[in-house]
Every structure is written in C-alpha cells, then in structure tokens.
Amino acid sequence: MALERSALEAAGKRYRDEGISRRVRGIAVSAIKEIPLLAQKVPGCVSLGQGISSFPTPEHIVDAVCRHLRESVWTGKYTLGPGLPALRRAFADMLVRERGLWVDPDTEICITVGAMEGLCATVLTLIEPGDEVLLPSPNYASHIEQVLLAEGIPVFFPLKPATWQLDLDALGHAISPRTKAIIICHPHNPTGAVFSKEDLLVVAQWALEHGFYIICDETYDFLTYDGKPYWSLLSMPELRRQVIGVFSFSKKYAMTGWRVGAVVAPADILDHVMKVHDAAAICAPTPSQVAALAALEGPQECVAHFRKTFQARRDRVCSFLDRMAPHLSYVKPQGAYYVMVKFPPQAGDSMTVALRLLHEARVITIPGSAFGPGGEGHVRLSFGSTEAELDEAMERLARWFEKNTA
Ligand SMILES: Cc1ncc(COP(=O)(O)O)c(C=O)c1O
User: Fold this and answer.
1) Residue limits of the Aminotransferase class I/classII large domain (predicted)?
2) 1 occurs within a structural domain
3) Residues 364 and 346 in one domain
C-alpha cells in the first residue's frame, strides 16, 4: 500500500480496487499534487504548495520555440528517442563547463519528459521486485512512489532533524545485502538541505563496497544560497559505473510546464533506460527540446537572477517564521525553494493540519507525511511564489497557528 495517507481519500475520494494491478493499487498520487487538486474547490487560496516558480519562461527561449514552430516542420514531429543530437551535445558541453564532467552525447545522455520520467525510467530499469532502495526521510514524495511502482522496497533512513543533514549512522544500519540503490537529491526537496561533501564521500565509499547504484536527482543543482558550493556524487570518476544523474530544465530555466529533463548514465545502462523511455514516451516533446536547446545556448543571467530572487524570498519567509516562534520552528534552507515547518503536536497530524490550513486559512501547504515518516509533524512551504503571494500566505498562516496552537 502507498505509505502516505492520501489527501483525496482523507477528503472522501474512494479508489476502485477490482481489476487494478497490485503495483498501481500500491501507489498514490503524491500529496504535492493532490492538495492543489482539492484547492480547486476552495476559492481565494494562496499557494505555498507545489514547487512552481513564479517566473515566466525567459523570452529568448519562448522566441526560439515560436520561430522554430513557424519555420521548421520538424518541430511538430517526433525526434529520435534519446533526443535532438544538438541538444544532447549542448547538454554534454554544459556538463563539461559547469561540472568538469565528460559524457558521450551519443551514448550516455537521454532527453526525457522532465526529470520525473527520467527518474521513473531509471528506477524501473534498475529495481526488481523486493530490491531495497535507500531513501532519506523526509524525501521527495515521487521517489517513494517510483520505487513502489517498480515493486521495490523503500528503506528510509532519517535525516538529522536539527540540520536535515545525512545521518550516517542510520544510513549505515539501513544498508543490507538486498540494497540495490540509493536515491540522493540535493539541494534537497523538501528540506532545502545541501548535503556535505564529507558525508557524500562516505556514501560513495559504501556504494563501492556494497555495489549499489546511486541515483542523483539533480533538479536543484543550480540553486544553493549564500554562496554555498554544490557538489554531486556524479563528479566521482570511481563511481562512474554505478551512478546515474537525472536532470531537469524545470526550475533552472522556469520551464516546469515544458516537461523536459535528461538522464546521464553509463551507455550500457542507458541502453535499457531507453527501452522504458520508448515504451512510455517515445521522445520528449520536440518544441520543449527546442526550448531546452535555446536555454542552454542562450544567456545564463536568468539563472543567476532566479537564484538571487529565491534567496531573498527564503529570507522573507524565514523572517515571518521567526516571528511565529515558539508556535513554529524550522531549519533555514541552504538551497532549493522549500522549508519544512514544524508545528506543535496538539495541532494534529500533518495531513489534518494541511487540510485545515487549506479550508480554514485558505493556504495550500503540503503535509510532511507525504515525504515519508520523517516528515510527520511538519508542513512543507514552497517559496517559489511572488513576494505579494508569500506575504499574504504567511500572514494567513500566522493568524491560523496563533489561534490553533496557542
Ligand atoms: C526533487 C525533484 N525531483 C524531480 C522533480 C520533477 O522535475 P521535472 O519537472 O523536471 O519533472 C521535482 C519537481 O518538483 C523535484 O522537486
């Protein structure tokens, strides 16, 4: 069964079981998407829910797609499965430029329908029924569902609640002879943690000793604050045979709706990922691939602008939260655009609190339980929205928590 309590079921939706596969009965639409679905029926909501950036897609990207659609008939047709050759080359060039990472654009990169399809194809490629997959807790909800879809077993190891850094003792104990992979995402959704290189090197050591795969979800690789350096296990040549990187254009270029991402993997693994990609998607949408190419080849100032603005929004939300102490507490995010907010136990469980916040305060938040057992007692706030929306939502939260937890 799905691990989280479904927001839709809590609100009265009943799922049919008869004739539905065990695999699919056992997963849930993540609460990150369920709560906004419920919110459609609640007028006047402000969203701190799904991680959608308020920025429009930069103009040069939109212009390139419009031009290609008008001038070239192939923009409306399928591409080759792994994606436009020019896009794969540009992506490989970016990896050299930004990461010092050399990959073969012909055999080691597949352009996917967002990071999400890349993650799903990778998990389905590597995980057999009964394989154990190590996941930090809390962790991005969809990683959990992808493991369950592959009939793998999510094995949670808690992050340290005081910092949300990796708890290496707990991780060490979670490794077993059935461990097939670990999924590491940082900057981390939902906590905003950026894991220390020292700790990641220990994970690398264990992966080498025990022979498990490392799936790196690089969705927020560009988004660290206060000049904090970002380092990924993808950069370790010793791990080259067992590390798979999954990238996204969604947040870096304000392209969440274009649905384009990439998988970077050793050629003999990517060959198999490609089979799942072909069965599920054929190829990423061609106009979106054109957009991704324009994003990589165009000016990069937008990325720096997004980073600077999100840092200011983080500070804005944190100063609101500081004023809400002692009702609420949090760990200041070092990256991504989320903060986990801990509320007092008398408010109820996190699903109850998120549903009450939706209906009574008219603020969309995500219940911490959606992110695995370590998320209970928290709600996740996204600070992707505009300053005006953040201010309104935070005022509403302050009033609600004061009334309900004093
Ligand atoms: C950690 C993480 N991975 C993957 C995704 C999905 O990214 P994409 O839009 O590229 O599918 C998200 C989206 O919020 C995310 O937070």
Assistant:
1) 45-397
2) no
3) yes
**Distance from the alpha carbon of residue 52 to the mean position of ligand 1, in angstroms:** 10
Domain identity same for 47 and 139? no
Mutational pocket test of ligand 1: of 189, 215, 260, 380, the residue with most ligand atoms within 8 Å of the beta carbon: 189
- Kindly state whether residue 2 falls inside one of the protein's structural domains: no
Pair 141, 255 in one domain: yes
Quick: pLDDT tens for 160-210.
999 999 999 999 999 999 999 999 999 999 999 999 999 999 999 999 999
Ligand 1 in reach of 242 Cβ (< 6 A): no
Say how many Å lie between the CA of residue 70 and the centre of ligand 1: 30
Domain membership flag for residue 179: yes
Angle between helices 31-39 and 141-149 (to 10 degrees): 110
Q: Looking at the structure, tell me whether residues 293 and 306 fall in a common domain.
A: no
**Strands, DSSP E only, in 73-212?**
109-112, 132-137, 153-158, 179-185
Per-residue pLDDT at 332: 98
- For the record, the structure tokens of 9 come out as 């079921």
Find the 248 Cα to ligand 1 centroid distance in Å. 7
Domain span at 236: 59-297
Looking up residue 11, the CATH number of its domain turns out to be 3.90.1150.10
Distance (Å) of CA 26 to CA 4, 163, 313, 348, 379 = 11, 32, 37, 26, 24
Do 283 and 328 belong to one domain?
A: no
Query: 235: how many CB neighbours lie within 10 A of its CB?
Result: 17
Residues 128-149 pLDDT 10s: 999 999 999 999 999 999 999 9
Amino acid (1-letter code) at residue 310: F
Ligand 1 contacts CB of residue 256 (under 6 A): yes
pLDDT at 5 (0 to 100): 63
pLDDT, tens digit (0-9, with 9 covering 90-100), for 295-309: 999 999 999 999 999
Q: How many domains does the chain have?
A: 2
Q: Which of 120, 140, 195 to mutate to test the pocket of ligand 1 (most atoms within 8 A of CB)?
A: 140
To test the pocket of ligand 1, the residue of 30, 122, 219 to mutate (highest count of ligand atoms within 8 Å of its CB) is 219
In degrees and rounded to multiples of 5, residue 257 shows phi and psi of: -85, -10
Residue ending a domain, among 239, 271, 297, is 297
